[in-house]
């Protein structure tokens, strides 16, 4: 199934007039970016943190953290990313699926990027399923955490941080809202939250079983050196590795959306780590071929979900999943 930019634009116009499909409704236009509308929405935005305890074959919680536009060797040489590589499995043949950023994010939850070749405001038609459908069918809780997103369920193209003046949040790095099956459902939107909610959910023991985490445009190396991203990751993730409650049977994937200077190769530095990693594989390298579709394929195999019937079907499973078979 392929969609042209024209079809995307038509879908966007239709979605702007459509109300969320659940019984809960949004008070303001969720795509509005002017400060007055955003601040009004902040006070009334619905936020939910549902939990579940569905056992997986290998892991019970999956967390993926995405960074930006960095060559494999540059990320591997950065001290903090190297620190985490030594605590997990380096996937040395993990590849992005295309350029630029947005279609890679789309692929990671949709199993396809549907021919998208830019970073526009996209609204994928509502009949296109995502990993959210697979998780909900199995009653597996999920959540998306976005650094500097102004409120839960925000769908604006970007948001300028009023303290720093930087456009640190961008819609194109928030994969779930690119799909109208999520964007037109207020209950689903309530699970797409500012990253500050992660710490609140952690303390309240209300983290979901599947999480997609996106640092802001400074923290993810898009608008700053790779060392800035490494410092951010070390600050965020290292304490979690020592949190036995969080880490219990948890798998974390650190990855990048695409490389920077090798567009045809497009190899993305990626590391698997967490309590679900067998001890004999810690500090090792996996040379099998993987790409962003492997994320979905691994989820499908771990929880025995349906497939999306797209490129997730033929994607290789990540090694710790294979090691338990």
From TrEMBL:
Query: Looking at the record's lineage, which domain of life comes first?
Result: Eukaryota
Q: Where is the signal peptide?
A: 1-18
Q: What is this protein called?
A: Acid phosphatase
Q: Which GO terms describe its biological process?
A: phospholipid catabolic process
Tell me which PANTHER family the record gives: ACID PHOSPHATASE PHOA, NON-SPECIFIC PHOSPHOLIPASE C4-RELATED
Q: Which UniProt keywords apply?
A: Hydrolase, Signal
InterPro entries, per the entry: Alkaline_phosphatase_core_sf, Phosphoesterase
Q: Name one Pfam family in it.
A: Phosphoesterase
Molecular function GO labels: hydrolase activity, acting on ester bonds
């Amino acid at each position: 199934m392929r969609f042209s930019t024209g079809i995307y634009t038509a879908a966007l116009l239709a979605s702007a007039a459509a109300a969320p499909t659940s019984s809960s409704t949004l008070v303001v236009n969720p795509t509005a970016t002017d400060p007055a509308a955003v601040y009004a929405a902040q006070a009334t935005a619905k936020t939910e943190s549902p939990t579940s305890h569905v056992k997986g074959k290998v892991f019970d919680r999956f967390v993926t953290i995405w960074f930006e536009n960095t060559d494999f060797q540059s990320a591997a040489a950065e001290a903090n990313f190297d620190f985490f590589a030594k605590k997990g499995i380096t996937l040395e043949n993990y590849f992005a699926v295309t350029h630029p950023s947005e279609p890679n994010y789309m692929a990671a939850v949709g199993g396809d990027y549907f021919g998208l070749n830019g970073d526009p405001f996209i609204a994928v038609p509502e009949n296109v399923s995502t990993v959210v459908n697979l998780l909900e069918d199995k009653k597996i809780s999920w959540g998306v955490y976005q650094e500097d997103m102004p409120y839960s369920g925000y769908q604006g193209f970007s948001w300028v941080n009023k303290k720093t003046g930087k456009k640190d949040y961008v819609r194109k790095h928030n994969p779930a809202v690119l799909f109208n099956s999520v964007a037109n459902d207020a209950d689903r939107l309530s699970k797409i939250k500012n990253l500050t909610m992660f710490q609140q959910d952690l303390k309240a023991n209300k983290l979901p079983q599947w999480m997609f985490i996106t640092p802001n445009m400074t923290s993810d190396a898009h608008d700053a050196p790779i060392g800035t991203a490494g410092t951010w990751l070390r600050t965020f993730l290292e304490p979690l590795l020592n949190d036995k409650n969080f880490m219990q049977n948890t798998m974390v994937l650190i990855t990048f959306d695409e490389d920077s200077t090798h567009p045809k190769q497009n190899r993305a530095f990626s590391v698997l780590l967490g309590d679900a990693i067998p001890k004999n594989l810690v500090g090792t390298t996996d040379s099998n071929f993987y790409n962003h579709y492997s994320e979905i394929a691994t989820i499908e195999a771990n929880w025995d979900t349906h497939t999306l019937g797209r490129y997730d079907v033929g994607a290789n499973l990540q090694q710790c999943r294979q090691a338990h078979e």
